[in-house]
Specification:
The complex is a heterodimer of chains A (357) and B (348). Chain A contains 15 helices and no strands. Chain A has 357 residues and is mainly alpha-helical. Chain B has 348 residues and is an all-alpha fold. Classes of the chains: A mainly alpha (357), B mainly alpha (348).
């Protein structure tokens, strides 16, 4: 949904800047000040405030056990959120990620049950994810179809193929050493060992988005595809590779899911796509494209994860957890628009005031 | 020589283009591909297994489609205006559980009152979505993704582990989805009436046409003087009412309602609309098409069972259908664009 009824209000910050420029003091608009008050920075503050609050007031929160469980829980969302951030920044979307994870899981189960070497199983499963991504990328980038519609289709298609692959069966007897590795911790810190790999993925996408011409091109595409194409950004090719990356990372998440819960099933990770999108939007990425950052998304994912974990420690039921996620999401998008409305109101009042003088 | 060629060419050309024009209105119908697909599916299944079109078979087909059909009609109203409602499954769940609670608290309440309460409840939930979208000017995709979670959480909090079963409800209420009128299940007739009424509203009234205008170009619609926010809010209210209706019918049709009722339904409903030729970025499509799309998606399950294909293939086929639908739509729109270019070039 790159455009909705009111495309003008999606960008409160750039809209606010020109209205202020003539009257406000210039020091307010320095780069650092802007960065510190940006939408994703607010999510980071919220995360920091919450972590400090939880560590002080919730018993047993600040412990390696917490770190371990919390991080293990958020890994699938964290992984998939990385390519999703880049895709949403270009103004597109990928709803098929959870189905790709499910298909990967089903493939792993069938191949392993068929007696294949585990490393070959992992390689083929990853390849399945890449092929799914290529398929999405082909339809969206080459044929130019709308990504929302295409990925609703492949959401059903890939989940369907997972069902065809493994049916109602579940494969559970993966090698003990491997499944133990996927839940192991780095010494006394409580940080899961696989987090190292996850951090590599995060750094990869962070650098790609924020420090390369390719990444700057993605922001440009989010503002205007035509303008981006005009200044020489290869729009279709960029989109294609994003979907391939999304497929590959979704496959990694599927592999992680399977080995963490020691169960390959066709319905693994179902519904995860909406959780990922909620976390990305909470992290300050605009659904219209053109705005967002990896640190913000990181904070968004961890904020939802740690809130959920804290509520669970406080024996609050799952009931409240989803409500809190939903309210956070709505609040995070409604608040800036209310803020810009107030700024607009103050601006017009000041203008009237000046005119009266 | 040259003129002879020309004179031979032109009469050749005229009739063929005239024949095309005569068939064009039918061929241009966006519902046509999905109608053909549905017919082929039903005929092929019938040829393989004649039991498929027995009285009971047809009744099951229609019953299965009813609820998705009503939801797809509501969703179409929104998609046409470039909005979307991801929270329909949660709305349906809340209303369905509400219906169960009402009957548990007041077993003697008239059934019609339950329908009114259910639809009013749906309107309230739809209003939450609509007001957030139109007042805060935030995209519907984000707002309704949020309310998807919020409504589901409310349902969890309300229902907890409790479930209401068919036995808790009056027999007359359950009979709505068992009894038939002229061979059609009563709740399906309700859906058909809804489809026809909304279709007439969309094609025959000014507010209905306004929805298309809003979806085609919101800025132009505003400039033209259409009250965009008001229309969009009304579309959300209507969608809420229809989701409420579907929730009450769900309680009548299915054995149990609880905290998870309706989970994941949003994507099926949007898929039905997309397969039925409703363009995902607004401006075109029809509720009739969406209803046919819903019928097609739900019929696939029964067909696969009837021709003894593994039921596991069902979802994959649904996916292929959605992709086929948007590719057909793309090809058709490219052709229209080309035709427009040619006719405009002639005018110059």
């Amino acid at each position: 949904m790159s455009e909705t009824t009111t495309p003008t209000n999606n960008a409160p910050a750039p809209a606010a800047a020109p209205t202020r420029r003539p009257s406000a003091t210039p020091w307010r608009k320095t780069r650092a000040a802007k960065l510190l008050a940006s939408r994703d920075a607010i999510t980071i503050y919220a995360l920091a405030v919450f972590l400090v609050y939880a560590s002080i007031s919730i018993p047993r929160f600040a412990s390696p056990v917490t770190t371990g469980f919390l991080l293990l829980d958020v890994i699938p969302v964290l992984l998939i959120a990385m390519p999703m951030t880049l895709i949403i920044i270009t103004g597109e979307i990928d709803l098929s990620v959870a189905s790709i994870a499910g298909l990967t899981s089903a493939t792993m189960g069938v191949l392993w049950a068929g007696g294949m070497d585990i490393w070959l199983v992992l390689a083929i499963s990853l390849l399945v994810g890449v092929v799914c991504g290529i398929f999405n990328g082909f339809l969206i980038a080459v044929l130019g179809l709308p990504s929302l519609a295409v990925t609703i289709g492949t959401l059903a298609l890939f989940r369907g193929l997972a069902l065809v692959t493994i049916g109602d069966n579940a494969v559970a007897n993966f090698p003990k050493s491997l499944t133990a590795f996927f839940t192991s911790k780095l010494g006394a810190t409580g940080i899961p060992t696989v987090m190292i790999g996850v951090v590599v993925v995060i750094i990869f996408f962070g650098v790609l988005l924020h420090f390369t011409p390719f990444g700057r091109g993605l922001f440009g595409m989010g503002y205007s595809k035509e303008a981006a194409a005009f200044v020489g950004i290869k729009v279709a090719r960029s989109k294609f590779w994003l979907y391939v990356a999304s497929g590959a990372v979704s496959a990694l998440a599927g592999i992680f899911w399977t080995l963490r819960y020691t169960s390959a099933r066709s319905d693994n990770a179902s519904g995860l796509e909406l959780a990922v999108i909620a976390a990305v939007l909470l992290g300050g990425v605009s659904i219209f494209g053109g705005k967002g950052s990896i640190p913000g998304v990181l904070a968004g994912v961890l904020l939802i994860g740690s809130l959920n974990y804290a509520l669970r420690l406080g024996r609050v039921s799952d009931v409240v957890l989803i409500t809190v996620t939903g309210l956070l999401l709505i609040l995070s998008v409604v608040a800036p628009s209310i803020g810009s409305a107030i700024r607009g109101w103050r601006h017009t009042r000041r203008a009237h005031h000046n005119a009266a003088q | 020589m040259n003129s002879a060629l020309e004179s031979r060419k032109s009469p050749n050309k005229q009739p063929s283009s005239r024949g095309w024009t005569a068939a064009a209105p039918v061929l241009r119908l966006r519902e046509l591909p999905v109608f053909i697909a549905l017919s082929v599916l039903v005929i092929v299944t019938y040829l393989i297994n004649p039991l498929f079109l027995s009285a009971q078979g047809v009744k099951d087909l229609l019953l299965n489609a009813t609820i998705v059909m009503i939801l797809a009609v509501g969703q179409t109203l929104l998609i046409i205006t470039r909005n979307i409602d991801l929270s329909v499954g949660s709305i349906l769940g809340l209303v369905a559980f509400g219906t169960g609670s009402i009957f548990a608290a007041m077993p003697d309440i008239p059934i019609i009152a339950v329908f009114v309460i259910g639809m009013a409840f749906g309107v309230v939930l739809g209003a939450v979505n609509g007001i957030l979208v139109t007042v805060a000017k935030v995209p519907a995709l984000v707002i309704t993704l949020g309310t998807l979670y919020v409504f589901r959480g409310l349902n969890n909090a309300w229902a907890g582990g409790k479930q209401y079963f068919a036995g808790d409800r009056p027999d007359a209420f359950g009979a709505l989805s068992v009894d038939t009128f002229l061979g059609f299940p009563i709740i399906t007739l309700v859906a058909v009436v809804v489809v026809i009424a909304v279709a007439l509203y969309m094609s025959g009234t000014r507010p209905g046409r306004d929805l298309y205008a809003i979806g085609s170009d919101p800025d132009a619609a505003t400039a033209f003087g259409i009250k965009v926010s008001k229309r969009v809010l009304l579309a959300f209210l209507a969608n809420g009412a229809l989701a409420g209706l579907a929730g009450v019918l769900y309680a009548s049709r299915f054995n149990s309602v609880g905290a998870t009722t309706g989970t994941g339904m949003e994507l099926t409903v949007i898929a039905a609309a997309v397969v039925g030729g409703v363009a995902i970025f607004g401006g075109s499509g029809s509720v009739t098409g969406a209803a046919l799309g819903a019928l097609l998606l739900t019929t696939i399950t029964s067909s696969l069972t009837a021709v003894r294909v593994d039921k596991f293939w069902q979802q994959a086929i649904v996916g292929i259908l959605i992709l086929a639908a948007i590719i057909i739509d793309r090809v058709a729109s490219l052709r229209t664009a080309k035709k427009l270019r040619i006719s405009e070039a002639r005018n110059v």
